[in-house]
Amino acid sequence: MLWLLALFRAGCVVAGPSYSLRGSWRVSNGNGSLELPATVPGYVHSALHQRGLIQDPYYRFNDLNYRWISLDNWTYSTEFKIPFNLSEWQKVKLIFDGVDTVAEILFNNVTIGKTDNMFTGYSFDITNVVKDVSSLKLRFQSAVLYAAQQSRAHTRYPVPPECPPAEQKGECHVNFIRKAQCSFSWDWGPSFPSQGIWKDVRIEAYNIAHLDYLTFLPVYGNYFQNYFAYERLRIVVGLDNTSQAWTIEIEASFDVVSPEPVGGQVTVAIPKLKTWQTNHIELQQGQRIVKVLVKIRKDFAVETWWPHGHGNQTGYNMTILFALDGGLNIEKAAKVYFRTVQLIEEDIKGSPGLSFYFKINGLPIFLKGSNWIPADSFQDKVTSELLQRLLQSAVDANMNTLRVWGGGIYEQDEFYALCDELGIMVWQDFMFASALYPTKQGFLESVRKEVTYQVRRLKSHPSIIIWSGNNENEVALRVNWFHVNPSDMKIYLDDYVTLYVKNIREIVLSEDKSRPFIASSPTNGIKTMEEGWISQDPYSIQYGDTHFYNYYSDCWNWKTFPKARLVSEYGYQSWPSFSTLEKVSTREDWSYNSRFSLHRQHHGNGNHEMLHQVKLHFKLPQKTDPLRTFKDTIYLTQVMQAQCIKTETEFYMRSRSEIVGGQGHTMGALYWQLNDIWQGPSWASLEYGGKWKMLHYFAQRFFAPLLPVGFEDEGVFYVYGVSDLHRDYHTKLTVSLYHWSSPKPVCSLVNSSVVIKAGEAVVLFKKPVSVLLLRCGRCTRETCVVSFYLSTDKELFSPTNYHFLSSLKDAKGLVKANITVNISQQGDVFVFDLKTSAVAPFVWLDVGNTPGRFSDNGFLMIKSRSVLFYPWKPTSKRKLQQALSVTSLTDTY
Ligand SMILES: *[C@@H]1O[C@H](CO)[C@@H](O)[C@H](O)[C@H]1NC(C)=O
Ligand SMILES: *[C@@H]1O[C@H](CO)[C@@H](O)[C@H](O)[C@H]1NC(C)=O
Ligand SMILES: *[C@@H]1O[C@H](CO)[C@@H](O)[C@H](O)[C@H]1NC(C)=O
Ligand SMILES: *[C@@H]1O[C@H](CO)[C@@H](O)[C@H](O)[C@H]1NC(C)=O
Ligand SMILES: *[C@@H]1O[C@H](CO)[C@@H](O)[C@H](O)[C@H]1NC(C)=O
Ligand SMILES: *[C@@H]1O[C@H](CO)[C@@H](O)[C@H](O)[C@H]1NC(C)=O
Ligand SMILES: *[C@@H]1O[C@H](CO)[C@@H](O)[C@H](O)[C@H]1NC(C)=O
Ligand SMILES: *[C@@H]1O[C@H](CO)[C@@H](O)[C@H](O)[C@H]1NC(C)=O
Ligand SMILES: *[C@@H]1O[C@H](CO)[C@@H](O)[C@H](O)[C@H]1NC(C)=O
């Protein structure tokens, strides 16, 4: 265990001692038959696994085999010697940053409190029970049993859903417990409702006063006023731009033990902004809140924070020093960033409804990205390295936004700090998802604490651009997903408004007026408010955001998709690569119809839906070797997923600047989902552990700052130029047709004077396909493919994109490609020089479990190509050669 003196400084009294209780504890089960060491922070499952008492919980069917662990009641205990002289301190506190979830806390055998919410911190006064040698016990109750108990106790009316669908193999009544909602299973994840102390725990002793929390928020102009404007004017004005000055609102809360008033001063310093401000404060005994406004001089140019792809993520070091009577000095350092956010909902010419888009620092920004779920069922396995890898991968794929989805967790501090640094905008849900929720007094009180705690913890992060009350609960009520009796509907509507509006929204607005708040996603924004918070059609594509899923229509047909204002969820499933599955399975599992393959699929009919889409445009694997067939099927599901989401995303990207039939002005595309919680089929583009699926390489291309999009409408082929750049560019567009059987273009059309407009999507090319084919002579829809790119005189200016003129199962002239690879090392990266004997679609390089990513993958290969491999851990040319497999479409024939 660690023993540290916070902020020790020679010559003055500093904040009191802080003693961390991280480290090795003991954990035992309900009847005492098991007792073992357990690491804190950590979970019971991890302790059992580390001790060798269970296998990897993710292995094969272990989610079912280990159900007993979550049904048992575990007790964490520790004993320790307090490393400071207790009689020198007036007050001692026990502080938990996170307990998961229901526990009774005993300090030296005295019950000092209870916990029932994993999303809030807890602190307990232990002054009267603490001894030099002390013991601490957390008697957990099974989350599953607790949820069932709470549900039973809710006798007035049911709060559905009772249980998840059978194929999820999950637990029931998760809506009755403030715990990650997906921990009872989801349609992409297992049920592992573990118990544990999942965040820091420590003892803090103090005299005079204790800093309980410190939070700050940079604001531009006067938000308070604007919040009312927002209600009145149908425009979400996130800021008043008239005063044009930045202010930092700082709020600190103290527990003052000194019976005399404590005087002192608070000094805020931001050296790079030449800002030093000192305010006098006086604190009376008890819980005291100090608020300070720090004005940044108007004449000083503040560099704003920008999302990735739009500018720098400039931040400033700030220190806040409280110098209190009695020589007590408490100093905190933080990084402060400046940016404004507005959610614009206003009339659009030529369209009913309202716009729904974000302006950052006054600039309209298209949200490009995905949805984030917890990176593991067991948060103690989520390392800083993993978070960095996943978030860096988002940025590497040209994303600028992630939605932290409401069925998981409020992520750890480091997640948001990384998003700040990387320029990832965060759409932050509150943790309620796809269910109705109770509103009993105790539940509401717990939620109120949670929301207050989280907003205070997170609001200083510029990355967070919106708060959203829940995931899909507005639509769940409107469409009556859970079949509640229509005559009881009023009860549920009232509960909805009570929870998300009268409680959560009220707290958010009192703690943070700098960001928009919506009650749900999807929602109709202002229209939802006007319609009493449950809109007539929350899926409306002319208001707010929308979610869209359709697995049976042809995903190559863009007319399948909604020309909506902002699409915050959409997607298709695929299987993770064989090397990822191999770690949790055995030979008998390696076929698409195995018991394992069915077991891992938590979405009803999901495996069938994937093959359905594959079959629309591809031939199913034709090999006889069962393992080869399994691998080829995995490959094809990834090809299908990548191609479907490409078509859909490109449709959203090119719809940003137009209104067609009253629809369009699309300003965001966040596909479902970025990452995986375990090794199974899902909508993710990153596999469990971070390996890129084919979709993620596609995302890197379809989210490029400058993208040519090709599509057909009524037999006419169009190319749009979609730009996220801040100025117009004159470029050259090249459109070529290639015969499947030849590496030489059949013909190329070049327009060397196309103009790409800043932040817009414009038509660059338009020709009937029949004319195009005729011009090129030797081409038919089945024999040729269209390829196009933007370039300047010297270099490529966009990814090279393509358009298929027919399904690939009908393509003529495609032959087996012999692709040869030569690997060489250049410093930290490896160069893969590829040559192909024939045009090859969807060329896929796979180096198995070697951690790292390629610069490009899953591409259409004409002749030769060099790609880089960026290893995430040291490796060698020899290892890569051994691990490498290359697959292209015809290899599955
Ligand atoms: C766990 O605790 C609950 C409630 O206190 C109790 O009903 C149940 O029997 C306990 N289970 C075990 C395995 O100890
Ligand atoms: C104690 O609990 C474990 C785990 O639930 C169970 O396997 C065992 O049978 C129980 N032992 C007794 C004596 O009840
Ligand atoms: C602890 O502090 C008290 C009060 O200052 C003092 O009387 C006592 O000697 C100290 N004990 C130790 C072990 O230092
Ligand atoms: C707590 O109670 C147990 C028995 O109930 C006893 O053995 C132990 O000494 C007590 N511990 C403390 C610190 O009082
Ligand atoms: C971003 O930072 C770089 C390096 O500090 C600087 O050269 C550039 O001008 C900055 N860009 C903007 C838009 O502020
Ligand atoms: C800002 O603070 C960080 C962390 O304390 C430090 O590493 C960095 O050097 C500081 N930057 C400047 C410009 O002072
Ligand atoms: C404030 O308004 C001015 C003038 O309209 C504009 O140039 C500036 O970008 C705005 N600032 C912000 C932070 O929106
Ligand atoms: C080139 O494209 C522009 C539209 O960007 C169009 O106005 C122009 O006519 C095209 N030129 C040729 C030669 O097709
Ligand atoms: C593939 O090409 C390489 C190099 O040109 C050649 O050595 C090899 O025999 C070819 N393989 C097949 C199956 O044609």
Shape: globular
Spell out which ligands are present.
2-acetamido-2-deoxy-beta-D-glucopyranose
Highest-level CATH class of the largest domain:
Mainly Beta
Question: CATH superfamily of the largest domain, called what?
Answer: Galactose-binding domain-like
Strand content: 25-35%
Question: How does this structure look, described?
Answer:
- By secondary structure, the protein is an alpha+beta fold.
- Helix content is 21%, strand content 33%.
- A 6-stranded antiparallel beta sheet has the order 4-3-6-11-8-9. It has a 6-stranded parallel beta sheet with strand order 32-31-30-29-28-37. It has a 5-stranded antiparallel beta sheet with strand order 1-2-15-7-10, with no helix packed on it.
- α6 (384-396) links the parallel β28 (367-372) and β29.
- The protein is globular and about 95 Å long.
- It starts with a strand and ends in a 6-residue tail after the last strand.
- Residues 1-12 and 224-240 have low confidence and may be disordered.
- Bound molecules: 2-acetamido-2-deoxy-beta-D-glucopyranose (NAG) (9 copies).
- The site of one 2-acetamido-2-deoxy-beta-D-glucopyranose has 3 residues, from loops.
- Residues 814-892 form the Beta-mannosidase Ig-fold domain.
- Monomer.
- Keywords: Disulfide bond, Glycoprotein, Glycosidase, Hydrolase, Lysosome, Signal.
